[in-house]
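Design request, tokens follow.
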């Protein structure tokens, strides 16, 4: 009991909630294994997103259509889609100015949002929305009993990727209006890792103070995990 109490006392504690975008770690082994902050689940009929100022989840808008997201959906902390991400998306005029989006496959239903999910990158969708690079990374829940062994998007049924494409091409679609979004291609793990690296580099360029603060904390975090 005394030993357990000492271990608890020596574990670093964050006394205030960190900002999901700027205060959480990008992941334990980036760019392969990442943290995903989940904003929307397959059971949500509202579009939620993190408020960039406060870090709290807010209602962005109700889903206009009957479409529901096929997977868990959120973003990778400490990433940013700017010039380096744009260079990887031919036809895009700029990055979308948001953290990198990620879709996470999980065999078991996860019904709540505003959680951190550890996942392995297997591919992505090269989406261009209104001229902006808006990539959707695809990952699988780490240690998932069904999808955990997947290492590339080709390892999962193609219908799952088709559902993602259909959702992103239609969820904002209004009858009689021209679609602004298109999926240029589906790519595998190799290119997805390039996109993650580019988004991490874009973040470091856009938010140098936050990136430096994260680098200073990593040795202590690693020491805590080794105990």
């Amino acid at each position: 009991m005394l030993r357990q109490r000492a271990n608890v006392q020596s574990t670093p504690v964050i006394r205030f909630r960190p900002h999901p975008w700027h205060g959480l770690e990008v992941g334990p082994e980036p760019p392969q294994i990442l943290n995903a902050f989940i904003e929307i689940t397959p059971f949500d009929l509202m579009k939620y997103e993190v408020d960039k100022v406060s870090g709290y989840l807010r209602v962005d808008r109700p889903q206009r259509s009957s479409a529901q997201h096929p997977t868990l959906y959120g973003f990778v902390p400490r990433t940013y889609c700017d010039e380096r991400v744009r260079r990887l998306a031919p036809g895009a005029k700029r990055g979308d100015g948001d953290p990198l989006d990620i879709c996470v496959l999980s065999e078991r239903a996860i019904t709540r949002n505003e959680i951190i999910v550890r996942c392995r990158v297997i591919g992505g969708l090269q989406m261009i929305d209104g001229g902006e690079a808006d990539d959707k990374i695809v990952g699988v829940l780490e240690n998932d009993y069904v999808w955990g062994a997947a290492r590339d998007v080709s390892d999962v049924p193609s219908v799952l990727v088709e559902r993602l494409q259909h959702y992103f091409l239609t969820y904002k679609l209004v009858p009689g209006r021209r679609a602004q979004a298109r999926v240029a291609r589906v790519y595998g793990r190799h290119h997805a890792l390039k996109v993650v690296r580019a988004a991490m580099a874009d973040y470091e360029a856009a938010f140098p103070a936050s990136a430096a603060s994260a680098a200073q904390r990593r040795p202590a975090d690693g020491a805590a995990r080794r105990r």
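Comment from the thread starter after seeing the answer: thanks! Strands lie at 33-40, 46-50, 57-62, 72-75, 94-95, 101-105, 115-129, 132-133, 136-141, 181-188.
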